[in-house]
Specification:
Layout: H1 5-8, H2 13-38, H3 40-48, H4 58-77, H5 107-118, H6 140-152, H7 162-178, E1 185-189, H8 192-208, H9 212-215, E2 222-227, H10 232-240, E3 248-251, H11 261-273, E4 277-284, H12 296-306, E5 309-313, E6 338-342, E7 354-358, H13 361-368, H14 401-412, H15 414-436, E8 441-443, E9 451-456, H16 461-475, E10 481-485, E11 488-494, H17 502-520
Parallel strand pairs: 2-3, 2-4, 4-5, 5-6
Antiparallel strand pairs: 1-7, 6-7, 8-9, 9-11, 10-11
Helix pairs in contact: 4-5, 6-14, 7-14, 8-10, 8-13, 15-17, 16-17
Length: 525
C-alpha cells in the first residue's frame, strides 16, 4: 500500500522538527549513558570512598598528639619562667593573612606554628602575675577535660544522652549552693554577658507574659534599674532585647560602690506615677571596677514589695558562696529571681563556662521553648529525655561546657575551690595594706573582695599611671589594668588567678614604684 506523505510525517515541517529534536535528544542521552558506563569508578568515587578525616596512620597521630599534650603540660608547669605577655613583633600579624588553605599540612608542622606563633603571644591570664582583668587562670585538669569533651563532640541542645545529665547535676549543685528551690532551672552559656541577656528576657516574660515573644514591647512601657557601677552587659542586654537602654534607670552608688536604695525606690515611684511598669532590678555581686556587692537583702525586699524581678549579676562574686568567709557578704542572694555568673573566673574552669539560674524554671521555659517538627521530644529513642537545654536558652547548638566544670569540682572539691577564693581575697587585703603603707601610693577604693584600685601619687597622676600600667604589661612580669574611680585613673589589680602569690604582689608594688620614680625624674626604669 502506498504511504501518503502525511502518514509518514515527512511532509509536515512541524513533525520533521519534532523528529530531529527527538533524535538529537536520544543521541545525547545515549552518549551520556555510554560515558557514565565507561567510567563507573568516577560515577561512584565520592559514594564508595573510605576517605574520612581520621588519620591514615593512627600511631603517628598518637605520637604527635602526645607531643602536643606534653608541650601544653610543660607550658603550664613552667609559667613563671615565661613572659606573662609580650607584644607581637612588627609585621608579625601578616603571617595570619594567608588565604584559605586548599591542600593539607602535616599535623606536626601546624603544631610547630602554634608553638612558635600563637602560644608565646597569648593573653597572659594563666600566668600568676596576671591581675589585669577578672579572668581565671584555668587548670591542667580543666585542659584535659576540654580535650575529652572535644573528642566526645556532644551537642547539648537536648536529646537523651549522658552529657545532659552532667549539666543537670551541676544545675542541682548550683541550686543547693545559692539556696534556690527545686523549681529552679539553669543552663551553661558562654559567659555572664549572655546570662544577663537571658535574665532580662526572662524578667520580660514574668512582667508581660510569653505573648511578648510575638508582640514585642511598647517603647517606654516597662523600666529596669541598675547601679552606676554595673557591668555594661546589663545595658547591652536591654538593647539586644529590644526594650532599649532608654528604659534602663541608672541608680547612683554610695561611697562603697553599692546601689543607693532610697534613690532606687524614688526612681521606681516616679516611673509608676508616669504609668510605666518597673519589671527588673539588676543587682551586682562583685562590681567590675572595685568588687562592690550591692545590698542584696535590701534589694530583695524592694523587689518583693514592688513585685519586680530581681536579677543578680554575680559574674565572679556569686561563687564566693563556696568560701565560708565570703558567703556572708552575699547574704540575700538566694532571694533573687535569677543569678548570672561564670565558672571561668573564680571557679578556674577554662574559657568559656558561664551560667544562668532562674528560681522559677517554668518562666525560663516560657521565654525560650518552641516545638518545631525537627525538635519533637519523644518518650523513647534518641529524642527522649524530659529536659532539653534548648528550651531554656537561645542556643540549640551547645558545647559540653559542663564536663570541664564537672571535672574541676570532682577532682579538686568545693572546699579547695572555696579556700582558693578566700586566699585571693586575703591577698587583695594584703595588697591594700602594702599600698597604704607606702606614701608614694594611694588607695582609691575600699577593698571588699579581690580587687585593689590604687595609683602612684603625682602632680599629674592620670597620664603617669596610664604609662605605668602599659610599662608593667609590656614588662611581662606582672600585669594590672586600668579603670577610673570617681573620674580618676586607677591601677586595678584583680586577683583571680589561683597561681598568684604574695611575691607577685610584692613585684607589682616594687615595679610600680620604680616606674613611677623613673617617670617623675624623666628616666627609664
Amino acid at each position: 500500500m502506498k504511504r501518503t506523505r502525511g502518514a509518514s510525517g515527512c511532509g509536515d515541517p512541524h513533525n520533521r522538527l519534532a523528529d530531529v529534536t527527538i533524535f538529537n535528544s536520544s543521541s545525547r542521552i545515549l552518549r551520556i549513558l555510554q560515558r557514565i558506563d565507561r567510567y563507573p569508578a568516577q560515577r561512584h568515587r565520592h559514594l564508595s570512598s573510605n576517605e574520612s578525616l581520621d588519620p591514615e596512620d593512627w600511631e603517628t597521630f598518637r605520637a604527635d598528639a602526645h607531643t602536643m599534650l606534653d608541650d601544653m603540660i610543660g607550658y603550664l608547669q613552667h609559667l613563671r619562667d615565661q613572659p606573662l605577655w609580650k607584644p607581637m613583633p612588627v609585621g608579625f600579624r601578616e603571617r595570619f593573612d594567608a588565604p584559605l588553605p586548599a591542600t593539607p599540612s602535616d599535623l606536626a608542622s601546624v603544631h610547630r606554628r602554634f608553638m612558635d606563633e600563637i602560644l608565646p603571644y597569648g593573653g597572659g591570664n594563666p600566668h600568676p602575675g596576671f591581675m589585669g582583668w577578672v579572668q581565671g587562670g584555668g587548670t591542667p585538669v580543666g585542659m584535659i577535660a576540654e580535650m575529652l569533651a572535644a573528642g566526645l563532640n556532644a551537642n547539648l541542645g537536648g536529646r537523651d544522652h549522658a552529657p545532659i545529665e552532667v549539666e543537670r547535676q551541676i544545675l542541682r549543685w548550683v541550686r543547693d549552693l545559692v539556696g534556690f528551690p527545686e523549681t529552679a532551672q539553669g543552663i551553661f552559656v558562654t559567659g555572664t554577658s549572655i546570662a544577663n541577656f537571658i535574665g532580662v528576657l526572662v524578667a520580660r516574660t514574668h512582667a508581660l507574659g510569653a505573648t511578648a515573644r510575638r508582640t514585642g514591647v511598647l517603647a517606654g512601657s516597662i523600666t529596669a534599674y541598675t547601679s552606676a557601677a554595673s557591668h555594661e552587659s546589663v545595658t547591652r542586654a536591654m538593647e539586644m532585647s529590644g526594650i532599649g537602654s532608654d528604659a534602663l534607670r541608672v541608680i547612683p552608688i554610695d561611697d562603697s560602690g553599692r546601689m543607693q536604695l532610697p534613690a532606687l525606690v524614688a526612681s521606681i515611684a516616679a516611673d509608676r506615677a508616669a504609668g510605666r511598669v518597673p519589671f527588673l532590678i539588676a543587682a551586682s555581686a562583685g562590681t567590675v571596677d572595685i568588687g562592690a556587692i550591692d545590698d542584696l537583702s535590701g534589694l530583695a525586699d524592694i523587689a518583693e514589695r514592688e513585685q519586680t524581678w530581681l536579677h543578680v549579676d554575680g559574674a565572679y562574686g556569686a561563687l564566693g558562696m563556696l568560701a565560708p568567709d565570703v558567703a556572708p557578704l552575699l547574704h540575700g542572694i538566694g532571694r533573687a529571681d535569677s543569678i548570672a555568673f561564670d565558672f571561668h573566673k573564680w571557679g578556674q574552669v577554662p574559657y568559656d563556662a558561664g551560667f544562668i539560674m532562674v528560681r522559677d524554671g517554668s518562666i525560663q521555659r516560657d521565654t525560650f521553648a518552641s516545638s518545631p517538627a525537627y525538635l519533637t521530644h519523644d518518650t523513647r529513642g534518641m529524642a527522649a529525655g524530659d529536659w532539653w537545654p534548648c528550651d531554656y536558652g537561645p542556643d540549640l547548638s551547645r558545647s559540653f561546657r559542663a564536663l570541664k566544670t564537672w571535672f574541676t569540682f570532682m577532682v579538686y572539691g568545693s572546699d579547695a575551690l572555696g579556700a582558693t577564693i578566700s586566699r585571693m581575697c586575703a591577698l587583695a587585703r594584703e595588697l591594700a595594706r602594702m599600698v597604704e603603707a607606702n606614701a608614694e601610693l594611694e588607695l582609691l577604693a575600699p577593698v571588699q573582695l579581690n580587687i585593689v584600685c590604687f595609683r602612684y601619687r603625682s602632680d599629674d597622676p592620670n597620664p603617669l599611671n596610664i604609662r605605668i600600667v602599659a610599662d608593667l604589661q609590656e614588662g611581662g612580669v606582672v600585669a594590672p589594668s586600668l579603670t577610673r574611680v570617681r573620674g580618676e585613673v586607677a591601677i586595678r589589680a584583680a586577683i583571680v588567678n589561683h597561681r598568684t602569690e604574695l611575691r607577685d604582689l610584692q613585684s607589682l608594688i616594687r615595679n610600680t614604684l620604680a616606674l613611677g620614680r623613673a617617670a617623675e625624674h624623666g628616666e627609664s626604669a
